């Protein structure tokens, strides 16, 4: 007679008998099968059956999580990402050896019984009673499939996984009822197919196709007898029978499977014996998961695509809902990444900035008129090691970028110029622009309260930069005092409205501070993608398009998902945009950005260097591509003075000196073989100061809006209303520069 343990519970034998016996009885009742021996098992079945009847009849099978493939715009693979490495295949695409091996070792009577194997249960009860514990289970392959469904549904939630695998009578009975449903609805072949696709084979491989690729680098349909037996043997204990880490245990288990196949007649004894003699010949493929595996340095773009998916409501109402779809995977995502542009961007970064330099560089390229992100690269690779990072310097914080972006310096000045032009100021507008000056006493804002100077001053980069200047020369030379006087003239509100329309925000996603330094000299942090996309608006003649990275998405079943679309709208007149293009052509032709200028096509851009040379920028564009390059320290602690970058020594770093050549080489390669359209030139009359310096207003136009002075923009229609406003310098304090933000806008 069995004894109770000292704690009052049942012995291991009694627990096994009750556990397995109730499962037998419950299944028998639902199936209408009489069990004369049930009473002999001593089961208290009544309550169990009533609870069994209350279990919902429909098993909700979640879609199996699979790998997602991210492609570039031409269909080339960038990376694969997954929460579980799985590729679902049809049963016809699984080797017959594999089908037979898994059935032989896991449920040899699979084709002979229903949801439960009564003979197997009674045999297990008898065996466990003899052993004095649970030595043998009796779950059918169908029941194992149901359990795996619950595990799959639990995902990565440890509590839910524990509930799905806990060894309790309630779970076993629940699985049993669903197993009966599955048998009735799916049939044996479909159950076997689903089982082979859902089960875990170790080494991060879920499903037989992933397992076959992982261990043998081949498809499941090509597995040989000895290979199939090895994989089938892993399922019972993926860690114990892992052939990578314990070949001896794995081969013992494989041979057990082979012998079982021979015992039930799936193969002859001779075939089994021959296979047993074959040594394990693994050809292991390492897991290729995540953006760290991306080609051509596109790891940061890959991560950006993921963040777009997780943040855009088009993919689900909540982030949790979107994350569930992403983790489920099985998607094929075609992106906007241009492989030629991406390669060129990375090649240029490698040529100009070393991975172990004290500073880093980032570049982003977008397409004017569509908002498509064409390239996104960094000098410090995507990764976890030394001189690697997972922070995407090109994007805002919420998309995986730095917390605040990076101060942009004088690359902000074209936004001020565009706002002034929209307010009716001509491109010949002149201001005194001294070398050094206080900020204006008071500057109007969008509200009733103006900004008031608290004694802040600013100065130009060079003491020789003394006005008066007109807009063209002030832009080419990047004259700080000119643009502060301009914003004092038009007020802060037009610049706020312009940057809002251009989508220019700080790196933390907040609006720009309403103050002269950030709204004139770029002292606030902004992301390269934001800058590249804003400048693309000039190239697109005043029509702004929001950035987009995803062209299309298809599910594993071939269904197309809705994807975010770029939103385009007119934010400035074509005349204003054309004028900015003409002004910024002068920057690369004869201004601070000459080292960045392309020689084979129309191009324009602006340099920027911030206080203490902690950041250097070049943002430029052609009519069909815009790009922003940032160079600096992510921590903002490195002053780029007496510094070596990319093996080249620099006593002082300027925006046109380091970022400029990076931009030039990247754009040249990205646009090789592409059309070279021209800007729509605007004639900008010369001012009296320019004449005094030896320029001739009557020089003929070159046909593209330029007079024949090299690099000088021109056009066909003069701007009316040339004026010289009164002296705008106000205040006499000399305390600091705009609240400690510094000039921010050195060229």
Describe this structure in words.
With 747 residues, this protein is of the alpha+beta class. The protein has a five-stranded mixed β-sheet with strand order 2-1-3-15-16, covered by helices on one side. Strands 5-4-20-19-18 form a five-stranded antiparallel β-sheet. It has a two-stranded antiparallel sheet with strand order 6-13. A hairpin with a 2-residue loop joins β19 (615-622) and β20 (625-632). α16 packs across α19 (493-501). The longest helix has 20 residues, at 12-31. It is elongated. It starts with 11 loop residues before the first helix and ends in a 55-residue tail after the last helix.
List its traits.
24 helices, disordered N terminus
Largest sheet: 5 strands, mixed
- DSSP helix fraction: 25-40%
**Structural class given helices, strands, pairing?**
alpha+beta
| Order of strands, widest sheet | 2-1-3-15-16
What oligomeric state best describes the polypeptide chains here?
single chain
Could you tell me the strand content as a percent range? 5-15%
Q: N- to C-terminal separation?
A: 95 Å
Q: How many DSSP helices?
A: 24
Strands, helices and their partners?
Layout: H1 12-31, H2 45-54, E1 68-71, E2 77-81, H3 96-106, H4 118-131, H5 141-154, H6 158-165, H7 169-186, H8 188-198, H9 208-216, H10 225-234, H11 247-263, H12 269-276, H13 299-311, H14 319-328, E3 332-335, H15 339-352, E4 360-366, E5 373-378, E6 406-407, H16 413-422, E7 430-431, E8 436-438, E9 442-443, E10 451-452, E11 457-459, E12 469-470, H17 471-477, H18 480-490, H19 493-501, H20 516-521, E13 525-526, H21 528-539, E14 543-545, E15 550-554, E16 560-561, E17 568-570, H22 574-590, E18 604-609, E19 615-622, E20 625-632, E21 641-645, E22 648-652, H23 659-670, H24 688-692
Parallel strand pairs: 1-3
Antiparallel strand pairs: 1-2, 3-15, 4-5, 4-20, 6-13, 7-12, 8-11, 9-10, 14-17, 15-16, 18-19, 19-20, 21-22
């Amino acid at each position: 007679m069995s004894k109770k343990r000292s704690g009052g519970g049942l012995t291991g034998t009694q627990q096994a008998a009750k556990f397995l016996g109730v499962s037998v009885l419950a299944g028998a009742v639902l199936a209408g099968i009489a069990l004369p021996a049930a009473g002999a098992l001593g089961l208290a079945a009544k309550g169990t059956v009533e609870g069994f009847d209350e279990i919902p009849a429909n098993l909700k099978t979640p879609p199996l999580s699979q790998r997602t493939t991210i492609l570039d715009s031409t269909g080339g693979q960038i990376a694969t990402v997954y929460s579980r490495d799985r590729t679902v295949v049809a049963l016809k695409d699984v080797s017959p050896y594999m089908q037979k091996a898994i059935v032989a070792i896991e449920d040899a009577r699979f084709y002979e019984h229903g949801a439960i194997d009564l003979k197997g249960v009674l045999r297990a009860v008898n065996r466990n009673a003899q052993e004095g514990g649970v030595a043998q289970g009796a779950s059918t392959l169908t029941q194992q499939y149901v359990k795996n469904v619950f595990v799959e549904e639990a995902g990565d939630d440890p509590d839910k996984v524990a509930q799905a695998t806990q060894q309790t009578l309630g779970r076993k009975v629940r699985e049993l009822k669903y197993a009966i449903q599955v048998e009735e609805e799916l049939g044996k072949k479909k159950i076997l197919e689903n089982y082979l696709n859902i089960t875990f084979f170790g080494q991060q491989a879920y499903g037989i196709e992933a397992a076959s690729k992982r261990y043998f680098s081949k498809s499941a349909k090509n597995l040989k007898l000895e290979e199939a037996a090895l994989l089938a043997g892993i399922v019972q204990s993926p860690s114990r029978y892992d052939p990578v880490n314990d070949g001896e245990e794995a081969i013992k288990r494989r041979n057990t499977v082979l012998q079982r196949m021979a015992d039930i007649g799936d193969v002859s004894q001779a075939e089994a014996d021959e296979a047993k003699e074959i040594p394990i010949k693994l050809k292991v493929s390492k897991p290729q998961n995540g953006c760290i595996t991306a080609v051509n340095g596109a790891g940061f773009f890959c991560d950006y695509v993921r963040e777009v998916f997780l943040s855009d409501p088009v993919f689900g109402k909540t982030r949790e809902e979107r994350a569930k779809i992403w983790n489920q995977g099985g998607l094929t995502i075609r992106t906007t990444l241009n492989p030629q542009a991406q390669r060129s961007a990375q090649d240029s970064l490698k040529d100009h900035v070393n991975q172990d330099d004290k500073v880093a560089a980032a570049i982003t390229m977008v397409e004017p008129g569509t908002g498509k992100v064409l390239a996104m690269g960094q000098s410090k690779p995507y990764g976890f090691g030394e001189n690697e990072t997972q922070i995407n310097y090109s994007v805002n914080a919420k998309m995986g970028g730095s917390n605040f972006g990076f101060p942009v310096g004088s690359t902000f000045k074209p936004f001020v110029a565009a706002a002034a032009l929209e307010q009716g100021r001509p491109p010949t507008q002149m201001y005194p622009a001294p070398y050094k000056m206080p900020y204006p006493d008071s500057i109007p804002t969008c509200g009733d309260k103006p900004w008031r100077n608290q004694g802040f001053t600013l100065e130009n980069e060079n003491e020789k930069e003394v006005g008066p200047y007109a807009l063209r020369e002030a832009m080419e030379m990047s004259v700080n005092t000119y643009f502060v006087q301009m914003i004092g003239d038009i007020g802060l509100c037009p610049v706020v409205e312009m940057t809002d329309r251009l989508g220019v925000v700080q790196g933390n996603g907040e609006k720009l501070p309403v103050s002269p330094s950030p709204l004139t000299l770029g002292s606030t942090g902004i992301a390269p993608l934001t800058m590249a996309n804003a400048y693309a608006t000039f190239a697109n003649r005043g029509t702004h398009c929001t950035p987009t990275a995803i062209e299309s998405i298809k599910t594993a079943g071939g269904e197309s998902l809705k994807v975010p679309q770029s939103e385009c709208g007119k934010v400035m007149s074509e005349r204003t945009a054309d004028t900015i293009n003409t002004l910024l052509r002068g920057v690369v032709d004869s201004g601070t950005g000459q080292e960045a200028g392309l020689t084979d096509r129309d191009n324009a851009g602006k340099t920027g260097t911030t206080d203490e040379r902690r950041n250097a920028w070049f943002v430029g564009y052609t009519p069909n591509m815009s790009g922003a390059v940032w160079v600096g320290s992510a921590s903002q602690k490195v002053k780029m003075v007496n510094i070596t970058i990319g093996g080249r020594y620099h006593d002082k770093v300027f925006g046109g000196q380091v970022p400029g050549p990076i931009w030039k080489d990247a754009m040249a390669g990205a646009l090789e073989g592409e059309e070279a359209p021209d800007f729509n030139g605007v004639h900008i009359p010369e001012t009296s100061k320019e004449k005094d310096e030896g320029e001739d207003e009557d020089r003929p136009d070159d046909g593209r809006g330029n007079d024949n002075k090299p690099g000088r923009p021109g056009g066909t229609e003069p701007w009316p209303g040339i004026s010289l406003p009164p002296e705008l310098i106000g205040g006499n304090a000399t305390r600091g520069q705009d609240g400690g933000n510094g000039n921010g806008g050195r060229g």
